[in-house]
Amino acid sequence: MRKPAPFEPWLVGAAALLLLVILPGLNAFTAPGSFLHVSDFTINLYGKYLCYGIVAISVDLLWGYTGLLSLGQCLFFALGGYMMGMHLMRMIGDLGQYHQPIPDFLVFLGWSKLPGFWRPFSSFPFALLMVGLLPALVALGFGFLAFRSRIRGVYFSILTQALTYAGCLLFFRNDMLMGGNNGFTDFKFLCGHDLRQPATQRGLYLCSVLLLLGTYLLCKWLTGSKFGKVQRAIRDSENRVLFSGYATAHFKLFVFVLAAIIAGLAGALYVPQVGIINPSEMATDKSLEAIVWVAVGGRGTLIGPVIGAVAVNAMKSWATRAYPDLWLLFLGLTFILVTLFMPGGIVGLPAQLGALKRRCWPTRPSAPGPAPATPNGEDLAKSNPP
Question: What are 76-108's pLDDT values in tens digits?
Fold first, then answer.
């Protein structure tokens, strides 16, 4: 197990202060155009990055602490986003293009009445319940069958990738009545607040910060408990844990479901900030990007994946503007360099540099001092001849 870095609590506290107080304060209380002003666009962009950081923590909980490399985590992220998107579509009412009390894409498909499974989503508490419940049920069904069959390693990764690919193909179908390849967009209100107002976006950003902090503290407590020790034991040698009398399938299933719920909550906050949700959010390449975030930040650290998610997505925002055709090459090169030269990720870099310094410049042993004297002032070597 990686020992927590001595600076980690200070880093978390400083990041929480920056994200909760300083950035929103600079956005709200400084004049636009001034040197210290943080624009509404930047606040919204970092809210999106923080949602990705929550997904990265869920991936790290699976991969870094339990040894389950899931390539389908963005499926649960998108499912949570779709549940929130259904509520946001219900809040549009008759303000859409066709001025009908049902979503525009249903009018386009020839529906004159709202389908039955859409009706409960006019309630925000019901939508919030489904944000966690649907990803949990999908993860529970898949995980029960996979772990009961003792599927491990690369086979588990391939199956999770197949699961998210199947979900992506399913949501692309128009007869699913979930928007097809266009998905949901043109959101207007959330709990009576106009999503186009900067104050609403700032509130969603603060909710993202609080959810990220709460997720980090929950996972930190969980991984530091006896349950976390069993997690790491399963990661290192599952057979030994089985022979010790633990039902490893139950532990893995619990972690898999918990990670799905965390990803679903992140998706629910992501959708109103970005303004769209479609099947591309559950594509297989999205889940592969989440693996890169964790690897770059530092697997098995919790704080590292958040740093990796923010850093990689900030680099993506820059690269897609400056070199749009080369972004995937940047991403692949970053993953290769980290795998070869930074196995501990960004968080493990200080320790790696310290070890390199000790190897290059080893400390010389100090010269031996004079032998201690006896109470009479004589040398011990003389008073005790061999």
Answer: 999 999 999 999 998 887 676 666 788 888 888
Q: Which of 41, 77, 42 is nearest to 56 (CA)?
A: 77
**Residue 291: CB partners within 8 Å, gap ≥ 6?**
59, 63, 69, 71
Give the ranges where the chain is alpha helix by DSSP (H): 8-17, 23-29, 40-66, 73-90, 104-108, 124-148, 153-172, 198-224, 226-236, 238-243, 248-274, 284-297, 303-322, 327-341, 349-360, 380-383
d(CA 135, CA 251): 18
Cα 342 to Cα 104, 348, 353: the distances in Å are 49, 8, 10
pLDDT single digits (tens) 109-159: 888 888 889 999 999 999 999 999 999 999 999 999 999 999 988 999 999
Distance of CA 270 to the CA centre of its chain: 12
Beta strand pairing call for 184-185 and 276-277: antiparallel
Residue whose pair of structure tokens reads 């897609």 in the numeric block: 320
